[in-house]
TrEMBL record, chain A:
The 26S proteasome consists of a 20S proteasome core and two 19S regulatory subunits. Residues 5-27 form the Proteasome alpha-type subunits domain. GO terms for biological process: ubiquitin-dependent protein catabolic process. InterPro entries: Ntn_hydrolases_N (IPR029055), Proteasome_alpha (IPR050115), Proteasome_alpha-type (IPR023332), Proteasome_asu_N (IPR000426), Proteasome_sua/b (IPR001353). The gene is PSMA8. Keywords: Coiled coil, Cytoplasm, Nucleus, Proteasome. Residues 222-249 form a coiled coil. PROSITE patterns: PROTEASOME_ALPHA_1, PROTEASOME_ALPHA_2. The keyword Signal does not apply. It is found in: Cytoplasm; Nucleus. GO terms for cellular component: cytosol; nucleus; proteasome core complex, alpha-subunit complex. Belongs to the peptidase T1A family. This is Proteasome subunit alpha type. It holds the Pfam family Proteasome.
Automatic annotation (TrEMBL), chain B:
Chaperone protein which promotes assembly of the 20S proteasome as part of a heterodimer with PSMG2. The PSMG1-PSMG2 heterodimer binds to the PSMA5 and PSMA7 proteasome subunits, promotes assembly of the proteasome alpha subunits into the heteroheptameric alpha ring and prevents alpha ring dimerization. The keyword Transmembrane does not apply. Signal peptide: none annotated. It comes from Neomonachus schauinslandi (Hawaiian monk seal). This is Proteasome assembly chaperone 1.
Length: 250, 267
């Protein structure tokens, strides 16, 4: 049945599916994992870096991009589609600032991206964007925000979420470990993001990229050394926790 | 003429009788030629068995010289990676022969000189225990098949987003008495291609056989998919064959990095 209703985006199947949109969600799962966490005074974006070919310039393979000084996003899925969406969002951020003389709110730019994606699910001869995005930032009111969009054009606010490959495993980890203590301060929130990624990233810290935004501060990308430091601390804490456990049992 | 959703123009079937007849005759003339071409292609189909090093051909009767108790087949790159890093890494395996085939759906155009680098199926046997291998001896033989399939082929009444892929499902013949290492494949799911052919053969000839099918969302070589086969290591057929699991995991990781195809489409 699916084969008759999945060629054209503008055709519903008899049981109400838009197969092209669902297939676009499969394309998202082919991208590497990205995780976003909303803390009390910080928002964190962590991504699994794909290993780069020897002759390739590492700086041109980026999953985390700034949309404005106070908003940034991470995506999973088709690289080219992401580039188009990011370019349009950046233009929209500046256009909004010039017109209204205020920076965009995170919710506004998320809604813009989601509307753009939805247009492509209802257009003749076009296919949906094959990306999901995690958009983070601080509004003027100082409240941290995390939103997620998907190829169907829906968007929701989250406390913590993951997209891309193994997103389900990471989300389950977050559901268990996202507590008030875990986001009590900035370093704890950063550690939670790294721990969530380490659940699914194969080769440890060197394949993780991390970005944070603190209130009234611009986007900060972590260097490889800083990430290694965090990973070493996490591993130490793990060992200590295991030692305590074994002491309790004996 | 009719316009479709994309605005392309499609020829609608004509209700005028005469036009139809002319078209049919034309069609018939072409079909005879097509049939001849197809017949010639079919004649070129071949299956060859030979030794890779010496390139000498191997008679099927030679393979019958190796009686075996366990026959393990891995189909697809993830299953092959699992077998080569976990099973073939422990003990010395000797290559006995390889099977190549060509039919009109193959992409290589050269029918006579198939290069050894494109082996479709390679046979190995365990030097230290020659009873592990084989092809034709039917008594006391147990067959284990490993393969992968995309999770979108898995039919279930649950929502697909609740599935924890990759996951393992088993399908066995009537004579296979051992309990499988994972849950059985439920209806209405079916098995396709080579694994189905092997299982049918085993069922007909009353050979105990089991297929371990891994449903995954990554069809290319992937560490998580290969590790999904790990529960099979506790089965009776593979127990004696796997010695060093941590070393095997290291070898698997190396295999991944060497085989990683750089694709920049998805980030």
């Amino acid at each position: 049945m699916a084969s008759r209703y999945d060629r054209a985006i503008t055709v519903f199947s008899p049981d109400g599916h838009l197969f092209q949109v669902e297939y676009a969600q499969e394309a998202v799962k082919k991208g590497s994992t990205a995780v976003g966490i909303r803390g009390t005074d910080i928002v964190v974006l962590g991504v699994e870096k794909k290993s780069v070919a020897k002759l390739q310039d590492e700086r041109t393979v980026r999953k985390i991009c700034a949309l404005d000084d106070h908003v940034c996003m991470a995506f999973a899925g088709l690289t080219a589609d992401a580039r188009v969406v990011i370019n349009r969002s950046r233009v929209e951020c500046q256009s909004y600032k010039l017109t209204v003389e205020d920076p965009v709110t995170v919710e506004y730019i998320t809604r813009f991206i989601a509307t753009l994606k939805q247009k492509y699910t209802q257009s003749n001869g076009r296919r949906p964007f094959g990306i999901s995005a995690l958009i983070v930032g601080f509004d003027d009111d100082g409240i941290p925000r995390l939103y997620q969009t998907d190829p169907s054009g829906t968007y929701h606010a989250w406390k913590a979420n993951a997209i891309g490959r193994s997103a389900k495993t990471v989300r389950e980890f977050l559901e268990k470990n996202y507590t008030e203590d875990a986001i009590a301060n900035d370093s704890e929130a950063i550690k939670l993001a790294i721990r969530a990624l380490l659940e699914v990233v194969q080769s440890g810290g060197k394949n993780i990229e991390l970005a944070i935004i603190r209130r009234n501060q611009p986007l900060k990308m972590f260097s490889a050394k800083e990430i290694e430091l965090q990973v070493t601390e996490i591993e130490k804490e793990k060992e200590e926790a295991e030692k305590k456990k074994s002491k309790k049992t004996t | 003429m009719a316009a479709t959703f994309f605005g392309e123009v499609v020829k609608a079937p004509c209700r005028a009788g005469t036009e139809d007849q002319e078209e049919e005759e034309e069609g018939r003339r072409e079909t005879a030629e097509d049939r001849e071409v197809r017949r010639q292609l079919a004649r070129k189909r071949e299956v060859r068995l030979f030794r890779r090093q010496t390139k000498t051909s191997l008679d099927v009767s030679l393979l019958e010289k190796y009686p075996c108790s366990k026959f393990i087949i891995a189909i697809g790159n993830n299953a092959v990676a699992f077998l080569s890093s976990f099973v073939m890494n422990s003990g010395v395996w000797e290559e006995v022969g390889c099977a190549k085939l060509w039919n009109e759906w193959c992409r290589t155009t050269d029918t006579t000189h198939l290069s050894p680098a494109e082996a479709f199926c390679v046979f190995y046997h365990l030097k230290s225990s020659p009873s592990v291998f084989g092809s034709c001896a039917r008594k006391n033989m147990q067959v284990t098949l490993l393969t992968c399939r995309h999770v979108t082929d898995y039919k279930t009444s649950e929502s697909i987003s609740s599935l924890h892929s990759p996951f393992l499902k088993a399908l066995k013949t009537q004579n296979f008495k051992e309990p499988p290492c994972c849950s059985l494949l439920e209806q209405p799911n079916i098995v396709h291609d080579l694994p189905a052919a092997v299982l049918s053969y085993c069922q007909v000839w009353k050979i105990p056989a089991v297929l371990y099918l891994c449903y995954t969302d990554v069809m290319k070589l992937d560490l998580i998919t290969v590790e999904a086969f790990k529960p099979i290591l506790s089965s009776r057929s593979l127990k004696g064959l796997v010695k060093n699991i941590p070393q095997s995991t290291e070898i698997l990781k190396k295999l991944m990095t060497t085989n990683e195809i750089q694709s920049n489409i998805y980030t």
